[in-house]
Amino acid sequence: MARIQCPTCGRSEIIDLNGRYLVECDQCGTVFFTAIAGNRPVKQAAAVCPECGKSELVSLSGSVKVRIQCDQCGHQFIFEGGHDS
Hints:
mainly beta; two-stranded antiparallel sheet; 52% strand
């Protein structure tokens, strides 16, 4: 999925296409060129709070080591994710 935005009025739209396109804005009629390159999907992993057990999906782009603060109990912990097997 990609978001394209009109350079004149700022209207944006999310589309599920790849390639080069000549686009006409539905709002102001501006015609502009856009190129949409494909990318790898972002992986998601479940980060589970070791204190209260609340789980939340975290978007990953590669191997990460981040400090997370649980929004349920406030406990901070280190989450390591994105390791390929």
